[in-house]
Specification:
Bound molecules: S-adenosyl-L-homocysteine
Strand content: 5-15%
Largest sheet: 7 strands, parallel
Radius of gyration: 22 Å
Number of domains: 2
Strand order of the largest sheet: 3-2-1-6-4-7-5
CATH topology of the largest domain: Alpha/beta knot
């Protein structure tokens, strides 16, 4: 692979406020050999300030993709990692920046990978973090652990580069090969919709008040990381359950109507 472009690894910046940070991120990426930057609803972009801060990385800015939802930004990804400056209420599978670099590098040989970075003031929302298979936290000074976003991107991209360089020497860790590609993010989202709908029809889930159960189910599935075949099987099971519910309800309706006619 070329030394300068790792196209399967995309950096996703969500709702960035300051365009200077977008330029600085582009520069940090290019220094480490990354080139795919996706912006989800940036507050101000395109902007002169981004161009100034990008310096020699204007090509990264030229190829930037701007999208309106996070789902769009990660739809075709087989691995999504979310960055977080602080501990969250529900713990999620957590990797160190170094483990993140190794995993991202290894998986990007096979499928698209996204790493998500949050808003300067609030980071990523819980809903956004729940779309990720892993979270990564840069273990900074506990008295002030929130890095500037471009600095955080620099650290994460540096670790990916270290893994790439180690791999070139034949020393990178290998993760188990699998016989099927991982499910794509957009199919996982459709699966969750299907699952919630089925569980609500079964009376197991109250869609008006589902929060904790849905979060825990998302964490469970993200931990397991279904492959495409497994996801197909699970969708098939849900469809059978929904068909069964539908036919049972029809049958009950028929019997009730018959009783009423008697
Ligand atoms: N006050 C916000 C900080 C956001 S910093 C909060 O508490 O969430 C902006 C972004 O930079 C974060 O969303 C994350 O993507 C990245 N970032 C900053 N510090 C980080 C750290 N220590 N580890 C991982 N990502 C970090």
């Amino acid at each position: 692979m070329s030394d300068s472009v790792f196209p399967n690894i995309r950096i996703v910046m969500v709702n960035t406020t300051h365009p200077g940070n977008i330029g600085a991120a582009a520069r940090a990426m290019k220094n480490m050999g990354l080139s795919t930057l996706v912006l989800v609803e940036p507050k101000e972009y395109p902007a002169e300030k981004a161009v100034w801060r990008a310096a020699g990385a204007l090509d990264v800015l030229d190829n930037v993709q701007v999208v309106s939802t996070l789902d769009e930004a990660i739809a075709d990804c087989g691995l999504v990692v979310g960055t977080s400056a602080r501990e969250r209420r529900i713990p999620w599978p957590l990797v160190t920046p170094r483990e993140c670099g190794d995993r991202v590098w290894a998986e990007a040989k096979h499928h698209e990978v996204a790493i998500l970075f949050g808003r300067e003031d609030r980071g990523l929302t819980n809903d956004e973090l729940q779309k990720c298979q892993y979270h990564v936290h840069i273990p900074a000074n506990s008295e002030y652990s929130s890095l500037n976003i471009a600095a955080a991107i620099q650290v994460i991209c540096y670790e990916i580069r270290m893994s790439y360089l180690t791999d070139k020497e034949g020393k990178a860790p290998h993760f188990d090969d699998w016989d099927m590609p991982p499910a794509k993010q957009k199919d996982v989202e459709l699966y969750f919709e299907h699952l919630e709908d089925t569980l609500s029809k079964l009376g197991f889930l109250d869609l008006k008040n589902p929060r904790q159960t849905v979060t825990r189910l998302r964490r469970l599935y993200n931990r397991i990381r279904m492959d495409q075949m497994e996801l197909g099987i699970m969708r098939g099971m849900l469809t059978s359950i929904q068909n069964y519910i539908y036919h049972s309800e029809n049958r009950i309706r028929e019997l009730t109507a018959r009783d009423e006619q008697k």
